[in-house]
Write a structure and sequence with these properties.
Elements: H1 2-24, E1 37-40, E2 45-47, E3 55-61, H2 65-80, E4 86-92, H3 98-106, E5 116-118, H4 123-127, E6 136-140, E7 146-151, H5 159-171
Parallel strand pairs: 3-4, 4-5
Antiparallel strand pairs: 1-2, 1-5, 3-6, 6-7
Helix pairs in contact: 2-5
């Protein structure tokens, strides 16, 4: 059995590597974050521009199990950073209906209390690299520059890892009001 698994991994490794190399073209670390303005499942208007001056943790999700796992990670991040100059935002970037997204959120093992946005036109899916690599998490600094990005969940973008990245940005923040998104 171990040989079969090893052989399978060897056969699939080049495919995975190709996918990661292709995905690297979408990683925008060091670039200004593309702006968006969307409505949350609760009806609130949220835009990246309105979050300027804060560290933003942005999760792009579809309706799938890995996205539920990563969305749960973002809830942990949100809870750990309450009261700090941080905004955690989730986006259903695949254009699902409000009803479908609501049902998806109700299936989470935790209650999602951060803004979860609807993107019926899939604009953020296009702006941030397409839906082939979902879930996708970005950490955006106070000036609107993407400083960290990961595809997937678990160790690559677990709550602890994201919190560490955010804390680095909070610790290095220049004087209030410096820079703009």
């Amino acid at each position: 059995m171990k040989r079969i698994l090893l052989a399978g991994a060897i056969v699939l490794a080049p495919l995975w590597a190709t996918q990661l190399i292709w995905a690297a073209g979408f990683f925008k670390v060091g670039e200004k974050a593309p702006t968006f303005a969307l409505t949350s499942v609760t009806g609130d208007a949220v835009s990246l521009e309105n979050l300027k001056g804060k560290v933003v943790v942005l999760g792009l999700f579809h309706i799938c199990d890995p996205c539920m796992m990563q969305g749960t990670n973002l809830q942990k991040v949100h809870e750990a950073l309450v009261g700090k100059n941080v905004a955690v935002v989730g986006i259903n970037s695949s254009g699902n209906s409000k009803r479908d997204v609501g049902e998806f959120l109700s299936a989470f093992p935790v209650k999602v209390t951060y803004p979860y946005l609807l993107d019926p036109n899939k604009a953020t899916d296009k702006l941030y690299g397409g839906g082939k690599f979902i879930p996708n998490v970005y950490v955006i600094d106070q000036q609107g520059v993407i400083r960290w990005q990961r595809v997937g969940n678990m160790e690559l973008a677990g709550a602890e890892v994201i919190i560490q990245e955010v804390e680095k940005l909070l610790a290095s923040v220049p004087a209030a009001g410096a820079g703009a998104m």
